[in-house]
Amino acid sequence: MCGIVGYMGSQDAVPVIMNGLKMLEYRGYDSAGICTMDSGDVEIRRSPGKLVNLERLLKEQPMRGTIGIGHTRWATHGKPTVANAHPHKGGSVVVVHNGIIENYLALKDELSEQGHIFISETDSEVISHLIDEKMDSTGSFEEAVQQALKMIQGAYALCILSKKDDKTLIVAKSGSPMVIGIKGNEYFIASDMPAIISNTREMIIMEDGEMAVFRNGGVKFSTIYGVEIAKEPRYIDWSPLKAEKNGYPNFMLKEIHEQPQAIKNVVAGRLLEDEGNVFLEELHLNDEELRSFERLCFVACGTSWHAALMGKYLIEEYCRIPVDVEIASEFRYRDPLVSGKTLVIPISQSGETADTLAALREAKNKNAHIVSICNVIDSSIARESDGVIYTRAGLEIGVASTKAFTTQLVALYLLTIRLGRANGSIDLKKGQEMIAALSELPAMVEKTLELDLQIEEIACEYLTSWDAIYLGRGISFPIALEGALKLKEISYIHADGYPAGEMKHGPIALIDRDMPVFILAPNDRHLVKVRSNMEEVITRGGKVVALCSEGDFETGKRADFTLHIPWAGEALSPVLFAVALQLLAYNFAILKGKDVDQPRNLAKSVTVE
Ligand code: F6R
After folding, report:
1. Closest-lying ligand 1 atom to the alpha carbon of residue 303
2. Which residue segments constitute the domains of the chain, with CATH numbers given?
3. From ligand 1's centre to the CA of 1, what distance in Å?
4. What sign has the CA pseudo-torsion 47, 50, 56, 59?
5. Lowest-confidence pick of 141-155, 240-254, 424-438
6. For the chain, how are helix, strand and coil distributed in percent, rounded to 5?
7. Among this protein's residues, is 242 annotated catalytic?
8. What is the per-residue pLDDT across 488-509, written as a single tens digit (0 to 9) for each?
């Protein structure tokens, strides 16, 4: 999930690459590095930590050249040190790599015996040494890369330079994304389009097993077996979104506050009020085709998996279709039971999550129809799906997902209406009601955001807690999981979400006066049961924060704190509870002085499995 940028052309490569890397920092910020080639001189600068450290280093030690490669790292093998930062150099060869080389230890042993000296703990360094070794035997950079790639097991997107062939840049891909932007004789290479789209809109998307050789202002495409192939650029017509904080102290808060508009965007042009239906042409499925699916299967990771869980509650309840919710990294390895009668729905903000993409491919191999729910336009998952429902949340920079999550929930609500209307389980009146409920939602999100001061007070009260529990029942359970994940990832407080009824089967042992328990108690059919669960906590001396619906003055009476969340009906209220829990995690993290946009150890786009 590292970010890669490469450049070959007539400009100074460093600013082009650094601008690209800035757009990719969400892929990892453990370290960054850059290499340029200038008349046979190879210069490398690497720095641990965020990109700003590399920028500083480049000011002190500038470098030049019109060919270059750069990298921003999310550490897998080896700590985030200078030695482990990319680019890696083995003999004459320099590489930047995204992915994981699974057989690197065996290759490293072999190469060490041949006299290669390794200075990093990474899997990636082995690639440079291996290509260098092959160059000695073949005398050709291109052939050396081909031979090396045949020996490598695992996933890679690579940009490769060699001092011995100083007018050439080679790119190869298998399993990790890579795109090439073309502008005349200039070539912009990146792991994601946003890194280079400000330079050109003519893009070539590399497929697995392909490589590109840039030389003398031209490019040649082939398979890694040397079979030449023709590839045509496509014109990318979407505009790069600017990452601006617009007066907010950080991106996370800005993105939390963008949710009313993001929700308006996800429904815009999709509601058919009179028909009590939604217009989701992008599914490419008519009513009869929608009815033909025996089951649905969501595949996703992290926050998107929580959205999928909520989707299960909605679709089973309103459409009466069986739904499985799969963690993508598990699904892909267990010969899943899907067929042509299964509608498989990958959910992904980035559209690049390696496990979700692999799960999609696994399902496709089994003839499943794939409709994804994605935020990033033209991402790998979007491109490889038969249909895509875009969530239109806009650019999400904060590593902790906020507006991407709530727009996923709304997209799932739209899909529910579409499926239910197609199979008749949602009638005209119900469909109209469900659509009408949506119109109030953005204003209710605004109202929920006004709870910020009360939420800050709660965060102050429990700031020294080491642990927290989130409880919810029914459709609130996925939101409890999401609330706990938000808290963990940005404030580093350990938190777990449970179905409220499950607490007495174990987690209740943890309850004491130092443990805040956040109880999601919307005014739905589970309220009475949730109140009992709350009593169980209070009886054991636990600290309770009750998140109730507006107008409910009963539930929170014995709680330590009560938050009143607007009531948007059973199916949409979870969106509002999610917003309140985002603010809660945010306040904890800010009060603790944490970097909410780039929490430690995380990356926005997880392109390694
Ligand atoms: C948490 C978070 C992650 C992502 C997960 C999947 O705030 O953002 O858990 O949800 O890495 O990412 P996408 O949705 O891009 O597939």
Report:
1. 10
2. 3-241 (3.60.20.10), 250-442 (3.40.50.10490), 450-595 (3.40.50.10490)
3. 12
4. positive
5. 240-254
6. 40, 25, 35
7. no
8. 999 999 999 999 999 889 888 8
